[in-house]
## 1
Amino acid sequence: MTQLSRNSLPQEGSTPAPLLPVPLSFERNWLHDLESKLDKGGPWGDWRLTRLAIQGEQSGLVTSFDELQCMKHLSGLSPLPHQLDTAHKVLFEMSGRAILADEVGLGKTIEAGLVLKEYLVRGLVSKVLILVPASLVLQWVRELNTKFGITAVAQKKSYSWGNDIVVASMDTAKRDPHKELLLSSEFDMLIIDEAHKLKNKKSTNYQFVQQLRKKYCLLLTATPVQNDLGELFNLITLLKPGQLGNQGDFAANFVVDKRQPKNEVQLRGELSKVMIRNRRGEGPVNFTKRKVRNIPLTLSPEEKALYDGVTAFVKDQYQESGGNLSSMLSLVTLQREVCSSRDAVFITLVNLIKKLPADSPKRERMMDLLQSIRTVKTNTKAEKTMELIRDMNEKVIVFTEYRATQEYLLQYFREHGLQCVSYSGGMNRGKKDWMMDLFRGRAQVMIATEAGGEGINLQFCHHMINFDLPWNPMRVEQRIGRVHRLGQQNDVVIYNLSTEGTIEEHILHLLHEKINMFEMVIGGLDVILERFEKKESLEKSLYKIMLEARSDEELRSGLDHIGESLSELSHETRKEIMP
Amino acid sequence: MTLSPLEVRKQVMDYLEATDCSLIEVSPLHVTVKLSPRADRMLTDRPYYWGFVERTGVDPETLSFTFVFDPEKYDSAAAQSPPPSRPPGGLNRPAGAALTSGGTEMEAGADNASAAASGAPPGVSTDPQDSILARYFGIVPALPRIGPGMIRREDVIYGSKRLRQIWAAAKEEGKCLQLFEDPGSRQRTTLFSAAYEPWLGVCYKVEMTCDLKREELHFIGISLATGKITEDFGSRLNALELTPRLPENIHIQPYEMNVAAGADRLESYLTSQLAALDYTWAEEARERLRLELSIVDIYYEELLKEPDEEKKQAIEEQYNRRRKETAWQYEPQIAVSAVTYGLFHLRST
C-alpha cells in the first residue's frame, strides 16, 4: 500500500505541552518499529495476541501506590499475618531499607521474599544481589524459585553475575575479581542474610557492603544487638547513615557505656524506623509445643574418677594463675569436655601437653589424667542415647559441641547398626547439602556440632538430643530453632542428658528451671540475656563461679544467685511481652 | 486484579488458538496440547534446538504439555476416575519415538509407574529437585527432562511463570499492527467504494515511580486524516471486526499527517491528561527525599571535618554515593512506554 502522506499541514491545535511537576519521559522505539514495518510492508502482529497482551498488562497493573500486590502473584504460599505486616511496613513505611530481625524460626526469608517479590511485581527492581553464608546459598535459590517463582541463580562461575537475580556467598563476593565487578554495578536491591556478621566497620565485609551501590536494602539477622550498642550503630549506618545521628550524637544521646543504653524509649523509637523484630509470643503464630525430657545419668566409677581428676586439676591451675580468666579458657574447655566424652578430653589434653615445656611440673599431672582416661571403657551417655534412639524409632538430631565426640558417636552408632550422618561447620557446601539429603532420606540420625547450627532447617524431624549443652543460652535456642520452627507439624521433643554430680547438672538446672528456656515458646530470651549481660556475659560469669568455688556448697550458692536474677528478669520480660 | 482459573484458561486457550497449536484433550480444568513450531519457539526456551532445525532443515518435533488451570479440582478428579485415556498411538507416543529415543521411552515409562504408585495423574514427574543437578544449582529448570514422547504437566495459574511467559510472547508477536475494518460481504457488491480513515492507535503504559509505584494504561487513537483524538480507542476497536487484509472496494482517505506527527500529538494529548492528575504522591516522595538527605548531610558533616586529606576524600566519595543512592530511591518520575501500537484503517463515519 502506498502511503499518501502530506507533511505540510501545520500542527494546529497542538498546544504547548503543559508542565508536569514531575519529569516525564516517552519511550519512542515503537515509532521506529512501526515506521520500518510500514516501509517493508510487515510482518504484522496478530490482533488476538495484541488483545491478549493488553489483558495481561491490565491484570498485572499496579493500580495503587500503597497496597501489597505480590500476594495475587503467589500461589501455594500462605504467609503468616506478621510476615505480611512486615512486608507492608518495609514497603510503605521504610521505603525499602530495613533490618529484618525476627527471632529464630519466624520466617525472615519469607519476609524478604515477599518484599523482593513485591518490588519485582511493581517493576521497581530488576537487578538483585543476595549475599548469604555459603551454606545457605542453595537453600535461598530453592526457596525463591519454588515458593516465590523468582528466577534466582546461585553464583558458580564469574558469568553467573550476568543474571538478574544472583545468590552468592559473602566470602566469594568480597574477593577479587568478583569484588571489582560488583562494585562497578548497580543493584536495585541488596539482601544480606546473617547480617550480624557486619557489625565491625573495619572489616572487609563491612566496607565492601558499604561501597556497593544499592537502591533498596534488606539486612536479615536473628541477633541484631547481642550486647553492644556500637555494633548496632554500625549496622544501621550501613543501611541508613545518620538515622541515629552521627557517632557523637549517638554516643551523647543513647549510650551510658558500651552495653548500657540510655533514653531507651527514644532509642527504641528510632530503631523501629529501620528495624522490624517479631517475637514468638506476639501474634497468632501457632507453634507446636516443646516437650522436655531431662535424662539424669549416673557416671560409672571410672568416669566419675576422671571427672573429679579433671575438675581438681582445672581448679588448682586457676588458683595458681591468680584468678586470670582469659588464660584459663582452654582449661575451662577441658572441664566442659569431660562431661561430653573421653575422646574430647583426650584430644584437648594431648594438645595442652604438647605445648608445655618438657620440664613443666604440670606435665606429670596431665599424664596421670591421660592414664585415667585409659581406664574409662564405657560411655554412659552414648549408651543411653543409643537406647533413646532405639525406643523412639524416628528421625532424631543429636547435638554436641565437640568434633571428637561427634566422631566417636558416629562410630559408636554405626557399630550398633544405626544409619547416621554427621554435619559440621567445616564441611563444604556440597557435602553439607549431601548430608542433609541423606538425613532427609535414609539416615535415622544426624550428629551435628554447633557450627552446623546456623541455617539448617529440619522441620521433618521432631526429636532432638542435647548430648552436651552449650553454656550460652542463645546457642541452645538456635539448636532448638533448627527443628522447632514454622512448618513443624509435630510437638518437638527435646532430650537433655545430664550426668549427676557434675557441672552439667547445674547448667541444665539453670537453663531449664530458671530461664525455662526449653519450653519457652514465648521468646524474649534475648531481652533477658541483654539485661543480664549488661556487665558480663553469662558464659563468663558461669566460668568464674565454676573456677572459684572451693566447695560444692559454694558452687551451688553462686549458681543459685545467677539463677535468681535470671528468673526475676524472665518474669519481668514475660510481663512486658504478655501484659 | 487477579484472574480466576476460568479467566486464565481463556487467556491460555486464546493464545494456543492464535498460534495454531493442536489441542489433544480439553476440559474446563486442563488442556493437553502439542505446541505449534511458532509457540514452541516462544515458550520452551530451546534456542539451540531451533537453531539446529533451521540449519539442517529437519522437521521440528515440538513439545507437548498438559496445562492445568485448577490443580486442586484436577487432582481430585484424577484421583477418582482412571486416568483419561489418550488416543492410542497418538501424539503422546509418536510412532518414531520407540525407534529414535528408547531412553526417553523408558524414562517416561518409569515416570508413569512411579506416578501411578503415588496416585498422582500420569505425566507428573517425580520431584525434579531431587536430582544431583539440583543439589549443585539449588534449582533445576524442569525443561531438560522433557523430550518427544513425554507430556509434562504444568499448573498454570495466575502469577505462574508460564502465564507471564505467554503474555510476554503475545506482546512480542502482537505489539505492532496494521488492520482494516471488515466492511462485510455486501461492500464487495456495492457500487461505491467505502471511504476508510487511517488511525494511529497506541496503548500507552504510564509508570509513576518514586520509592513506590503506580501504573495506568491509556489506549488512545488519532485519526491521521483529521487529527481527531479518541480516548479509549481499544473499546472502539473491540467492537469491530478487523482483518489484516486490505478489503475490496474501499479507499483510504489521504493522510493529513504522517505517523511521527501523529505520535507527537498523541504524546502531547497524553501529557495534558497526565497534568490533570493529583501529584500529592510526588510531593510526599520529595518530602521523604528531603528528610533522608538531611539525615545523610548531618551524618557526614562531622565526618568531613577529618583533617587527613586522603581519608577525607574517601569519606567525601562515600557521602556523594549515599546522596546519589537516596535520590535514586526517592526521586519521582513518570515513564511512558507503548505496549502495543499500530495503524488501523476504519470506515469513516
## 2
Amino acid sequence: MKKNHGAMIRKSWDDRIFNTASIVIVCLLTLVVLLPMLNVVACAFSSPKNVGGGRVLLWPVDFTLENFKLALKYRDVWIGYRNTIFYTTVGTFINVIMTLLCAYPLSVKTFSGRHFFNRMFLFTMLFGGGMIANYLLISSLKLLNTVWAVLLPGAMSVYNVMVTRTNIESSIPAELEDSARVDGCSYFQYFWKFVLPLSKPIIAVIAMYYAVGHWNSYFTPFLYLNKRNLYPLQLFLREILINTQIDSSGFTDPELVQAAQNMADTLKYTLIVVSTLPLMCIYPFVQKYFVKGVMIGAVKG
Amino acid sequence: MQWLKNNSPSPEAEGARGQIQKRPAAERLRFALRRDWQLYVLILLPALYILIFCYLPMGGIQLAFRNYRAADGIFGSKWVWFDNFIRFFKSYQFTRVLKNTLILSLYSFAVGMTIPIAFALIFHCIELPRFKKITQSIVTLPHFISVVVLVSMVMQFLNSRVGLYGILYESVTGTYPSDLFGKPAAFRHIYVWSGVWQNFGWSAIIYIATLSGVDYELHEAAQLDGASRFQRVLHVDFPHIAPTVVTLGIMRVGHLLSVGFEKVLLLQNSLNREYSEVISTYVYQVGLAAQMKPDYSYAMAVGLFNSVINLILITLANRMARRLSDTSLW
C-alpha cells in the first residue's frame, strides 16, 4: 500500500538528495559499529606477533587457532563458564516464576489488593535503600559468598512485572476470564490452564531479557562474592581484561604461564570473543523477541 | 508507558470496591480475603521478596543518621542526625563528585537522547526494507555486550600502539597518539561516546517503530503544500514521536544522578579519578572498598543524598511534562 502511495508522488530533487544522504549516513554509522567488532575478531584469530606489531586491522593476519587453544587451557575460563551457565539458567528460572506469580494477580481487575500491591511495587522503582544498605542486608542474612547472593537480590524486576502484567491484560480477553469464572474455574486453575499457555510469547521475551542480564552481570557477584570458585565468567574477565592480571595458578603448566604473558594482548581479544560468542550467535535468531520486548514495554500494549 | 499511567482502577474494580466499602473495615477485609485468597497466595512470594530485598534496606537508611559501629549493631548505634551529611557537604570531595556526576549525566543525557532520535528519523526516510533490516541488526548488536567486555574493548581499541585507533592515527599522521587513558579530561568523552556506540541502535528501536505509524496522508498533504523532505521530517515525523521522546526523557531524568556506575567503576583509574569520581563510585569507595575502616554511615548518607535528589528530579520532570504536554508517567 505504502509503495503505491509513494509511486504516486513525484519524487522531487531534494527528495532524492535526502534519500541518498540518509543511506550514506546510515551506512557510515553501521560501519562505525561494525568495524571495532570486526577488529576484535580479526585480532583473536591472528598470531600474537602481528597483533603486537599493530598490523591487524579487519582481517586476520597469519590465521591461527593457537590463541583459542591457549585460552581454553586457562582453568578460570572453565570455572567461569560453568558458574555463569548455572547462574543464568537457575536465575532465569527463578525470575520467570516470580514475575508470573506477581504479574497475574496484578492483572486481575477485581483483585482487592491490586491497588496496594501496585503502589508497593512501583515505589521501589523510584526509591531504594542503596548499595550499602543492600550489602548490609545480604551480609546479615548470611548470604555472602553463597550462590544465593547472586540469585536472590535480583530475583524479580518490577519493570518486567509491569510489562508482563500489561501484556496479560491486553492479550487475554476479559470475556475469557468471565466465562471461566462463571463455569467455576478458580484463580489457580485459570492461572495454570489459561494464563500460562496464553502467555508463552511474553514469557519468552522476559526470559531472554533476564538471561542476558545474568550472563552479563558482574557487579552483584563482584560485591557479594570473594570465593573464586563461585565467580561467574564476567568477574574473571574483569581480572584479566581490565586489571590485566593473569593468575598463574589458573594454568596447570608453568610454561603456559610464560606463553600467556607473552601474548596477553591477543589473549584479551580471544577472551572477548570466547565470552561474547554465545550471545552473538543466538542473537540473530532471537532478535525479534528482544525488539518485541521493547515494544511491549514502551508502546501502548 | 501505558502501564505506568494505567493505575486508576477500572470501572469494574471501582464497582466491586464501592460495594465493599459500605461495610465496616474488618468485614470488608474478611470478604476480600475470602474472595481473593488464591490471588493473595500467588502474590505472596513476590511481595515477600519486595519486602525483604527492597523495603528492608530502606529501613537501613536510618544508619545514615547514626554513627554505625558493628559492635553496637544497627539499632544500638548512636544517633548523630545530620552530622554525616554535613561532613559530606563540607568535604572537598562534595563539589568534585557532584560536578562530575552532573556533567557526566547531562552530557550523556544530551547525546544519548539526540543521536537515537536523529538516527531513527534518518533511518525512517530510507525505503529499502532489506538494507534496513541488516543495518538495524548490526547497530543493535553491541547492546548485548557486557560492561566488562565493552570497557576492555574500549581499552584495546584506544590502545595507542596495537589498537585500531592507534594504528589508524599512525597511518595518517605518522606518529603514535598519546595514551587517551592517561589524559583525565578524555574520560568524559570516552564514557559518553562508548555508551553511544553501544546503545544508539537499541534506543532507536522504539522511535523507529513509532515512526512506522505515521499517517502517510500527512506526508502527501505536506508535499502538496510544497514541504521539502527535510521540512516533512521536522513537521510530520518529529511531532509523531514527540510524546515518546518526552516519556523516555522523564524516565532518564529520574536517573540523572545515577550514572552508569558499573562502567564508571571499570573505566576508573588512579589517573582519571579527578574526573571520574561520581557520587555512586564515591559511596562504593568510602563504604565498601575501604578494607580497613569502612564508613557505612557516611557512605549511606552520601547515597541517600543521591536517591533523594533523584526522587525530586523525577517528580519535577513529571510535573513539567504534564504541564507542557499530555504525556506523563503518573
